[in-house]
Design brief:
It is built from 7 helices and 5 strands, in the order H-E-E-H-H-H-H-H-H-E-E-E. It has about 220 residues and is an alpha+beta fold. Helix 4 packs antiparallel against helix 7 (about 155-175).
């Protein structure tokens, strides 16, 4: 934590707490990120009313296909953040204060929207941190089976791909510029990103941060 403080990162006073933006530039560090709180949040389906009664489609045709996974490159600061998260310490990230427009898009307009975004970002990072700690011990079998099917959850090659995706998502959330509204939003979309090298709009801003496009549903 000493390194992170020297780099100007805001740290909560205790573990299992998160910092978020509140009001006009004010930062609070009292968000409950204990595993029990994250589990209670994840267990609620109230955020997904349109998914009730629907099952996930499992296409396991290529679960054992070998896929070359590109390694991640971390700066010293990024590595320090990841290590802190292993100990359930969640530093404030640059994403908190770098909310801005991408091209012709509008910046997040209200302090209430910014507070909600930074709170949800902290909770998402805590959720991913817990998942990445428990996934190697195979303590996420039920969740993996729900979304990908039992054959996938038991396949080591597929599990390696799932872990790579979780690391990728964590990397994006730690290096993001959030923009609102996204030009391709629809009523059932919370947020989206453009894939790398898609040939479409850029997936990164000039400082190499990933654009995350938010939709109206995210703020409801």
């Amino acid at each position: 934590t000493g390194l992170l403080k020297s780099l100007g990162r805001r740290l909560p006073r205790t573990s299992d707490a998160g910092c978020y933006e509140r009001g006009a530039g004010d930062v609070a560090c009292d968000l409950d990120l204990a595993p029990e709180a994250i589990q209670a949040m994840a267990s609620s389906r109230s955020d997904f009313p349109f998914s009730e009664g629907k099952s996930h489609r499992h296409d396991n045709a290529d679960i054992d296909r070998d896929v070359e996974l590109a390694p991640f490159g971390y700066s010293v600061e990024e590595l320090a953040v990841r290590v802190a998260q292993l100990f359930r310490i969640y530093p404030a990230l640059d994403s908190d204060v770098e909310l801005g427009p991408a091209e012709a898009l509008h910046a997040l307009g209200t302090s209430e929207q910014k507070e909600l975004l930074t709170r949800r970002l902290r909770q998402a990072q805590a959720y991913l941190s817990i998942a990445l700690r428990t996934f190697p011990a195979n303590r996420t079998h039920d969740e993996a089976a729900l979304f990908f099917g039992h054959p996938a959850s038991a396949s080591q090659s597929f599990r390696s791909r799932m872990q790579a995706v979780m690391n990728s998502v964590n990397n994006v959330l730690s290096n993001a510029t959030f923009v609102y509204p996204g030009p391709s939003c629809s009523p059932s979309v919370f947020a989206y990103v453009y894939p790398c090298s898609s040939g479409g709009p850029s997936e990164k801003d000039p400082r190499e941060r990933f654009y995350v496009h938010l939709c109206d549903l995210f703020f409801r």
